[in-house]
Amino acid sequence: MNRESYEEPLLVENLKEAIKKINENVPLTQVDITRVLEEVMLKIPGAEAFKKVLNYLKEGVPIKLEKTKELRYIKLIDYENIDKNEFIVSRQVYFRGKDLIRVDIVLFVNGIPLVLIECKDPTNPQISWEDAYNQIKRYEKTVEELFKYVQFSLAVVENVRYFPNVPWVDKVEVGRWKEENKSEMDSIIEILSKGKLLDILRNFIFIREQNRIITRVVPRYMQYRAANEIYRRVVENLKGNNKERRGVIWHWQGSGKTLTMIYAANKLYRERILENPTIFFVVDREELEKQLSEEIAAIDIGIRPDVVESIEELKKILSYDGGKGKRGWFIVLIHKFRYSELKILKETLEKDFRDKESIMTRKNVIVFVDEAHRTQYGTLAATMRSILKNAFFFAFTGTPITGKKDTFAAFGNYVDCYFMDDSIEDGYTLPLKYQPRLERLHVNRELLREFFKQKEEEIPENIKGKIKKKLVDIKKFLEDERRIKEIANDIVDHFINNVDGKFKAFVVTVSRKACLIYKKALEEALRSRGIDPTKYLEIVMNFEGEVEPEINNYEIELRKRYKGKQTEEILKEIQDNFKNSEYPKILIVTKMLLTGFDAPILQTMYLDEPLKGHTLLQAIARVNRPLKDRGKIFGLIIDYVGIFKELNKALTFYSKLKKKGSKIEGISSFETLINELEERVEEMKKIIGDVEIKFDRDYIYSILTKITHENNERRFLEVYREIINLYESLGFYEERLKYK
Prior knowledge:
Elements: H1 12-22, H2 30-41, H3 47-59, E1 61-64, E2 71-74, E3 87-96, E4 100-109, E5 112-119, H4 129-142, E6 152-156, E7 160-164, H5 184-191, H6 194-203, E8 206-210, E9 213-217, H7 221-238, E10 246-251, H8 257-269, E11 278-283, H9 286-298, E12 306-307, H10 311-323, E13 328-333, H11 339-352, E14 365-370, H12 379-387, E15 392-397, H13 407-411, E16 414-418, H14 420-426, E17 432-436, H15 445-453, H16 469-478, H17 481-499, E18 504-508, H18 512-528, E19 537-540, H19 549-561, H20 567-580, E20 586-589, E21 602-607, H21 613-620, E22 635-639, H22 644-658, E23 667-669, H23 672-688, H24 697-709, H25 713-729
Parallel strand pairs: 5-6, 10-15, 10-16, 11-13, 11-14, 12-13, 14-15, 17-22, 17-23, 18-20, 18-21, 19-20, 21-22
Antiparallel strand pairs: 1-2, 3-4, 4-5, 6-7, 8-9
């Protein structure tokens, strides 16, 4: 390789030649090329430089040409003609910053180092991919200039992991790349193929800034796979090669559906054949609308979606440009497609634009439906589809439904499937454990059977119409103050002994009234144990609609406590504090935060509301996000209702729906922790020998010598950590005492 010095990470001469070659239609002078190089090379390492350089890699470097004085973007990489680029793989490459480092393998594109690979000896049982990962993290601190350009790295031993390079973040997400019917090593080689590498660079790597933390986003394999299949279906349809205009993306909660949507939308929006499309993100809850808007705003994607605030605004978007419709990205609640409000617009489009281009006839309209559930099968959805008649529709869900309301009937076949067992295997989500408690306080079985017969998957706040009286009986039972007081004492005991200090919890109730009763009862239980409940608890619920006087009074008290802030602002602050601050430690919720809420600190859900089907799975998935630094190895559901037989039905249903031979695993009884602990203890005995444990210096030394002699240090530490985490997770469960 022709390099100027170890201090310069770029292959400068290679980059100069590449610029000339891939910008051959631009009248570049030597001065222009020098300006391009200076614009890239003189950026001081840091978050802003990372953002700028990534944008240059994607879009080119803007300069005013010396000859013509016009502003042009000078490409550093040619994404249209891949073979015009120069790809170099080099071994044992030296770089100098604060010190000299030697990188095992570097991938250069047009002289720009984009990927680092650090390899370790696979025959050494003491070495893992973590050693390679840690070495690259040290490189980031040592040669900062290099990581202006490097987008992701690979840690290679017997196993392979990939991760984004973010020097100022100590721990970033580490993933495995999977390709169908390929080994881990062959899969990672696939990600480095010319076309796929440049596709990932251009369409799937972004800088994200959220909660004052700046990081780099790289795709998970299932996100890449699903987004590209959506892209393929749309593009091939517009070329006349297929008739696929719909599809279902079935990805389990916590696997990153929102980013998958953004990836697909971004790639399609920039595709020339779509000629400036209109893209709708359709949600069915205001909290999902806010979450999606915030997620897109956090990513440096270059596009800001409009949040459709009213039906009148939706009308303007649909009728814009003489009925052709406004171009861009739009986030809209399905409830704004109200037939009575859009009827005249629909009839006008049908009558006056039958043979003209309109929002109704245009093919470059794409609709992404987030959490495609009940609202996608009634009048609202029918109105939306009748106006966006030629649009592409893609549904994203972790829990599709079948029957009279059928996700697949409404949206077509699979685009991609990635369910609970896949996500747990990859480490993106955790297994769930459930534990029935205070079973004498569970809902009567006959009443539960009545609930399971109803089409509703949770008990409504206001029970009206044809819903049977027995649902009212269930609600009254669950709002009983004496029952709630007893459960509240159990919750506080369990939380203090098992959760507090490491994690946080939800109390899920049947109604707003139950929320207030639970708050009072939990506060009393905390005070009786010498704990000040002032900041410990908060309620998150909806204050709209028909509201009882006590709910109104609570809202007034809440606003006083938060110094007159608006209720919506307060609820957002409570959620942010739950995620990022010490307090509150427990949120009491009803009909809110059970979909879309992502907080790894949430580990336990105290469930006192009957749920079923996809609503149940959606809710319990709130506790499945990993938090490795605190030893979170599962999410826990404490059942005070008696509904977990329904959970087994739901899992059986999804096992059949997934069309795999094996049963979907991922949810099991809390008591299985004992079996898991026993298995780890038996494994430890194999490592150290089945001997009596003595706290004697010479004895411990002999054990350590045995472990070292047999090269079992790493496995010993892994099993030891697993035993500690399992033991602590059992809390004051009596069975753990025999392992003390």
